[in-house]
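Summary for the funding panel

The consortium committed to producing paired sequence-structure records for every protein in the target list. Below we show the first two records in order, beginning with the earlier of the two.
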Amino acid sequence: MKRIYLIIITVIILITSFGVHAQTDFEKYLQHRDSVYNDYVNKSTDGYKNFKDSIDNEFAQYRDSINKAFAQFLKQSWESHTLKENKLVIPVKPETPPVFDPNKQTPPVKIEPKSTPIKIYEEPQLPIDDFSNRINKELKEKLAEYYKTASHKDQFDFYGGKINIFYDDMNFNILSINNQTVSQAWKQLSQKNYLPVIDQLAQYAHEYNLNDWGYMLLIKELGNKLYNNNNKTTLFTWFVLANTGYVNVKAGHLNNKLYLLVPSSMDIYSTYYFTNDNYKLYVFDLDNIRNSVKGISYAENSPKVSTYNNKFYNEKTKEFNFFQTEQLDFNKHTQAKQLGFMYNAKYTTFNLMYDAQAVDFYNDFPPCESEVYFTSKLSKSALESIKKQFKPMLEGKTKSQQVQFLLTFTQKAFNYQIDQKQFGYERWLYPEEIIKYAYSDCEDRSSFFAQLVNYFTDLKVIGLIYTNHIATAVCFGDKNIVGNYLEYKGYKYFICDPTFIGANIGNCMPKLARVSPKIIDFASLTK
């Protein structure tokens, strides 16, 4: 969420090509802005105010002209695109978890990974670390003044939290849905005093540590409060996202209903999409998020969505981010769950906390690629409870002994059941959710165990994807570890399988001992 503040200050909107002349002028502005900003970075903090004032004044003219030009562009004919459903392949998992049998264990071997690892994603960084702190302070001062004059004050719920919002009139008219009415609605919204609303939303997103999807959900909830109308909410969400810098997010209509079109280079499953400029645009029904992302069709067979035809992706824009690499901080409704397992011939119990609102939050996420789950952080309340109770158990142990404890805990403290029996469909649990739900299977345990290794050690951990199974492997450096391993980037990674009950470090399921897995490399997103 720190990235939002750089965008808020410069109000980077609508870089898309809605006219050659407008695009050329805007690109000239961007080049000038970058030059001015680079000068600012190299100067003292005193240069910040001059930088911001000059950019704000200069950009105000661009902001108004570009919103006006874009509204005019939306009147042009929209093209129809046939949608496909990105179905999640259902793996064939065992009804009961495999149990380690030392009499059936094959001799340790080197496992060859598949030649091409899964794509390594990296989270964009700000030019300077403390930029968000300066913006945060200034926004608070600016908003404090705005609160005195705003004509409306309201409150809406966001996963257990009460969000106070100050705003002036934000109403606009839209009845039937077509390119003409959407254009007129965009023009009406662009004439409203919307920037203080965006500033407040950015503040709350920063406070809760939301990722881009969470920020979209926050905007959506405000839209529901303001309009109580799905089409208005969707248009408002699209408008705010675009004016916050998410210029590659689009809207489309189908059967007199607006849908949010979110581009992503990673696969988003169990929802519709179409391809444009080598990117997939995923179609989301903001009126029915939970059902639409679970693969329930919200349109006819082979549906077609209409949207404006322009290049939606530009190197100066951000890709929509589904990674939750910062700890969620709802912390309003924590709950406890007792988990226990046999360790050193003694049954040991732990009372682990989880954030019930974070669980609800993740329930509104679409199914994503595996990296998203491996890198999603436990909430502050969950992690604090784990650290407090695990720390005495790990003190005085070697790193391999610590990993073995964490591995045994993950294997034995959670009950196993495949997703089809627990949920009725395939679902990868986020680390926070594995504490709450009664059951888990291989992918859930692997991402949770990887989180524990990252929290309690400085060891490298990777995910391993087989056709019908997911596990992990840990690098212990030059330690004398014996067992099945892979070589990756010049290091040995030893198999650690959280679903192979009773298995130690280096023990691999016999049927997988000579199978080449794909590697999930998420190190850049967890450190």
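The next record, for a separate protein in the list, is shown here:
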Amino acid sequence: MVKSNFGVIIFIAISVLGLAVSTHAEEKSNRSRLREVLESWLPTVGDDSAPSGSPTTFGDGSSLPLTPADILSAEDLKAALPWRSTSFANQTGTLGWSESTFDVPTKMKDRVAFWRDIYAKYTTEQGVLHDSVHVQIVYTPIDFSTIMKDPSLSFSQKARAREDFIESKRTEILERLQRLSNVTDSEGLAGDDLRVWEQFSRIDDPQKFSKAMEKNRIRFQLGQKDRFLLGIYYSGRYLRSMEEIFRKEGLPIELTRLPFVESSFNVNARSKVGASGIWQFMPRTGKEYMKVNKDVDERNDPLISTRASARLLKQNYQMLQSWSLALTGYNHGAYGVRSITQKFGTDDLSELIEKDPTLAFGFASQNFYACFLAALEVERNASLAFSDPKWSPEIESADFKTGSSQSWRAFLEFFDGDETLAKSLNPHLTSRVREGKAKIPVGIVLRAPPNRVRVAENFFSGKFPASKIGTQLKGLPMPKSLYSASSVLTAARSVIRARLAQPPKTSQLVLPEILASVPRTAEASLRAPLTPAHDDDEPEVLSIFNPRPASYRSSGEESP
């Protein structure tokens, strides 16, 4: 299903639960500043909590219970399919594959364990303050549910309370590191001082505590457990087709799990720097593999972009000759990765990170492969990491190629005028086309209800005019599964738009009241994972990492 701009509002409203706006003027101001607040909100909110212990073991009971019933409606659950594990065996002859290809390297185990916790232990109402170089050093876990559920605080007050809380925790950590930098052994240390000392014990650097106090070393990472579970649900629509695409390309099917890192399979994932779709292609890179222009943006089509990502990953591997580097190149740029391997004389990613933790890679690229391995492990063990995970059924449709240029309005007739459904099956058509400023171009792939696709293909081949579409569709009703899903989402959006467009009738407008009138199926669809950025200077990114920098090109230009 397609998420409108209000999808962001709904996701935040669900997270807040107690969001209150005291006046219409304040409500309007908050809406206009939604992005600004989102930038400062998601990375840094917390409440006190006990220190984290060892990394999560699936099913050990150390994380909050989470089930599909927490994020899906009864109707969704009834229609959902049981998640089932994929066999990654018997891929002999696949490029660069062996049974041990995606085993966790010894030197990366701590790093992978950190990201596994982010995916399988902490929800988006939790997170951790940790060291950005040695990510496994977790200073304190964070829980900001108390702040978010406080009905006495407005939207902006909650953001400010969160910021103040985080800054106080950062100050405490800095003070602790300052104390530890002045001692030579652990004698006399206790509590958190002793715990942090022991976490640093494996680092052989006399200046380690002083360096840990440097700018950007203490950072916050938001948990992803609920988003990962929702990502598993949405992945059910595409994974079977994606795996087939990668098999045809001769690539390991493990790579189809990369969108868990990039977007949590949210087809509406966008970033402020231009990355788009479940694979988060940047525009220039996308143009090398797909149609990306004012009228068509195939980065947003899950399967077309999957074919493109398969080609890009294959080229990366052919250049770098290892999947750890090829995947890092997906984020950083293959030419940039090759330059770094040549500089340090090794193609071992663990060694590259260890030799120079402040590489041109940056935080995102340093952690990208570890994050992929963690996501692969969590999804592979989904039945242990989550309670009874579910898959969404595949969306019923068939595709065809346009033989002539036609209007969006005419195309809508094949969906009985249902624009939401038409958009959900054709997310690569831009607003210019949908608003009638341009026609659907010749030579692109469209999707239509399977029992109507032949008629649609004939229409786009010029075999009959738009005035005859209704006649041609007689006896070909819209499949019920498509129609019912679309009607729920359309109704939800109508409620949201109507309520948000009007002044509150009382002194307070509580957004959860709006949600109470929204069918839960649509609510879950609009909650498609909105994954925050990792780096403080790129807080608006919707993928787990900032999208790759300007150097993310197959031609390998350097970052500015």
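Regarding this second record: DSSP finds 27 helices and nine strands in the chain. Residues 1-54, 487-560 have pLDDT under 50 and may be disordered.
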